[in-house]
Specification:
The structure holds 2 protein chains of 2 kinds. By secondary structure, chain A is of the alpha+beta class. Chain A has 11 helices and 9 strands. The two termini of chain A are 37 Å apart. The chains are: A alpha+beta, B alpha+beta.
Chain lengths: 363, 383
């Protein structure tokens, strides 16, 4: 169903669609196994378009916009398999701008000259987001973090937003790349991108929110879950479109295969899943502040988007038949992007476990 | 979950809630099946006297002239208190159809008794040979001077055995191609000679619907709605709107609470495998809420979702079924009882809502037909 937009929002969507016309499967293929796996000049361009500071207050050089605008850009990024880490930068910028005095990295992140990535996950399922095992020691001004962060999108990053347990509970802090006691181990992902394990041993850090608060960690996590859900929406939306086009031209048994009811019902099912995630994402966007998303809603969105994006892209491959199983065909790139995004910060099953706790379903 | 009441809407909600608490008889609350007319119609008339029976009707026809948001508030508050389902064929179907397509005489004759609750209507669409393929219907209406003579057989007609009138689709041109071009929309007095109604017992063990035999029933020509052979368009004109109303997530939220209470009573709530299924169900209820709010928002801005509203029918009905399946799972052995299970969280019936919900993916266009609609009319796949 159509999402109601203001004229400014429609223009933003158009400009994001124009940007991704320069991306797409062919470009994404070119960045497989490259380092960095994206074009820094394009990230800079996204910064100039105002997208990286989309959630940052105008007084700090951002756009001061909300989740709907973020979603409009990230949905297009998902559609275009964009490799530039627009979502990572935009949510990190939001976290860097929550203090009265902006963090020194903020301006460079907003302009796309530097990249800061969240590092919140510590295990395969990310179920420890709210209670990190990474420790924060020392006093303000001489803080140190020690611990291990996993599945960090570290490619091209100049620094990280690290969650750590301090004396008064979880806190969010900034750690610069290559700070003392810092080790980064990268692994290739199934789609030719890279994720990293970040080992920190008495590494210097700055506290991002004063006083340190659990809220800073959870609000960034919820925003990240929302951003990932939105990008997954774009991935499934474009994969569905490609598949419907194929059903309209491919002939077997002397007929267009899109006329067969068995395939029509599968097409209807992927449409239902895509539109469900669309309504969920944009209704959350319209009713929540970027750093104040209702945790149950953020978790629900990530659970649903992760499950549905995999189901949709898997079905898209099935509907393409043999050609869909080849590396040469682009549809597989959408499945792989869905695999990556749906696993980050916890897959659908992990989100359901968190949901059961947050929504108090176990008592 | 997504929509928030304005201060005026919150005040209206409060007024509705307080009035329902004071006026809805306790015996009618939380019933899993529809009570018989002798119990139900006095409540219908109480709502009517309050002026609240037809929130979506314009004031000139005795309705409330409520905004869509106020209508939703009304539905939600009725669901919250566990109010019984009213007969809706008059209020939601023939009423709005007559407002749009009826003559002045038809409106004057038929609309006031619907509001007053003195006449009950049935919908005569399906036939033994015409279910999903409704356009193949064969009940024949032959025009003979100033009257039609109707012969045929209607089935799955909700509450026909309690109804006074039936609006029906009848074949007036057997040669027409395509077939739906030969169908007309007729109002039939069920007290006429030649009408025989037989109730049909459902798997939920109630007499929710019936079949209607029409044996040369004489219907005055003035009971034709719209033009001759234009019945198909009339019957389909108001479909999308109705789908939004019946998919209010409040029903799913109530079903979810019932599952939680049952799972607490039987102890299965402590099982992580069950919790996973409950979390998935709850996330799906959140999703339905989002779809519903989205559709309401579009309708409020005169961009009614049209054929896309098939999504809401599919998601809403399949979700309600899966929730009742989970209720049966939570109930374990208690699901087999033919009466409510007494728990410290109240009396909970599992079998009846489960059995009753099997119909929601069949009526009003089955899930399979809805998927055909999406494939052809929304996704433009070839035929």
């Amino acid at each position: 169903m159509e999402v109601r937009l203001t004229s400014e929002q429609s223009l933003l969507r158009e400009s994001a669609a124009k940007f991704i016309a320069g991306a797409g499967a062919k470009v994404a293929r070119g960045y497989r196994h490259q380092s960095p796996g994206f074009d820094p000049a394009r990230l800079h361009e996204a910064g100039e378009l105002g997208w990286l500071g989309i959630l940052v207050p105008e007084s700090m050089g951002g756009q001061g916009l909300g989740l709907t605008e973020l979603a409009l850009v990230l949905e297009q990024a998902g559609r275009g398999l964009v490799c530039e880490p627009i979502g990572l930068a935009a949510i990190s910028a939001a976290a860097l701008s929550q203090e009265r005095a902006p963090h020194p990295m903020l301006q460079r992140v907003v302009s796309g000259q530097a990249l800061v990535a969240p590092a919140l996950q510590e295990s395969a399922h990310g179920t420890d987001i709210a209670e990190p095992r990474t420790r924060l020691t020392g006093a303000d001004g001489a803080l140190r973090v020690s611990g291990r962060k996993m599945f960090v999108c570290a490619d091209g990053a100049d620094g990280f937003l690290v969650s750590a347990a301090g004396r008064d509970g979880p806190a969010l802090c900034y750690v610069a790349r290559n700070a003392p006691g810092y080790t980064l181990t990268e692994t290739q992902t199934v789609d030719g991108r890279r994720l990293a394990t970040l080992d920190l041993a008495d590494t210097p850090a700055d506290l991002l929110a004063h006083p340190p608060s659990r809220n800073a960690v959870e609000s960034l996590n919820n925003l990240a879950l929302f951003a990932l859900s939105t990008e997954l929406l774009g991935v499934m939306d474009r994969a569905q479109e490609m598949t419907l086009d194929y059903l309209r031209i491919r002939k077997q048994f002397g007929k267009l295969i899109g006329s067969f009811q068995a395939l029509q019902h599968q097409a209807a099912n992927i449409y239902i899943r895509t539109e469900s995630v669309r309504s969920l994402v944009y209704q959350i966007a319209a009713n929540n502040e970027p750093l104040g998303i209702d945790p149950a809603l953020a978790i629900a969105a990530k659970a649903k988007a992760s499950e549905d994006a995999l189901a949709v892209t898997q079905t898209c491959i099935q509907l393409h038949g043999g050609i869909g199983f080849t590396d040469e065909h682009d549809i597989g790139l959408y499945l792989k992007r869905a695999m990556l995004l749906s696993s980050l910060l916890g897959n659908a099953a992990a989100q359901r476990r968190r949901y059961a706790a947050v929504a108090r379903l176990s008592a | 979950m997504f929509r928030r009441d304005t201060p005026a809407e919150a005040e209206f909600r409060n007024e509705v809630r307080n009035w329902l608490e004071a006026n809805l008889p306790t015996a009618l609350r939380g019933r899993t099946t529809r009570p018989p007319p002798e119990e139900l119609m006095p409540w219908y008339r109480t709502l009517s006297q309050k002026g609240w029976i037809a929130p979506h009707w314009p004031k000139q026809y005795g309705g409330m002239g409520a905004t869509l948001n106020e209508q939703i508030i009304m539905t939600e508050e009725l669901a919250r208190i566990g109010a019984p389902h009213l007969p809706v064929q008059g209020l939601n179907h023939i009423g709005p159809i007559l407002m749009e397509f009826g003559t002045d005489a038809q409106k004057q004759k038929h609309l006031p008794p619907i509001v007053a609750g003195t006449v009950i209507w049935a919908q005569g669409y399906s036939e033994p040979g015409a279910g999903s393929d409704l356009a193949s219907l064969s009940t024949r209406a032959t025009l003979d001077g100033d009257r039609f003579v109707v012969k045929g057989h209607k089935i799955w007609t909700t509450w026909a055995h309690h109804s006074d009138w039936m609006f029906a689709l009848v074949r007036t041109d057997p040669q027409a191609q395509p077939r739906h071009a030969g169908i007309s929309f007729l109002l039939i007095d069920l007290h006429s000679p030649g009408v025989k109604v037989r109730p049909i017992r459902t798997i939920a063990n109630d007499d929710e619907f019936a079949e209607v035999f029409l044996d040369d029933v004489v219907v005055p020509a003035e009971n034709l709605v719209g033009k001759l052979n234009d019945g198909w368009r009339i019957a389909n004109a108001l479909l999308g709107h109705e789908r939004i109303g019946t998919s209010n997530p409040q029903f799913a939220l109530i079903a979810l609470e019932r599952i939680k209470a049952m799972a607490q009573a039987t102890g299965v709530i402590a099982d992580p495998a069950f919790q996973d299924r409950l979390a998935a169900a709850s996330i799906n209820v959140t999703t339905l809420s989002a779809l519903f709010s989205h559709a309401v928002e579009l309708t409020n801005h005169e961009k009614s979702p049209g054929p896309e509203s098939s999504i809401i029918k599919i998601v809403g009905s399949e979700l309600l079924q899966s929730l009742n399946e989970l209720l049966v799972e939570a109930a374990g052995g208690h699901a087999t009882a033919d009466r409510p299970f007494h728990t410290q969280f109240g009396d909970i019936d599992a079998a009846v809502p489960y059995l009753f919900s099997r119909r929601v993916t069949i009526y009003g266009g089955s899930s399979e037909i809805q998927r055909n609609v999406i494939a052809r009319r929304v996704l433009n796949l070839p035929s």
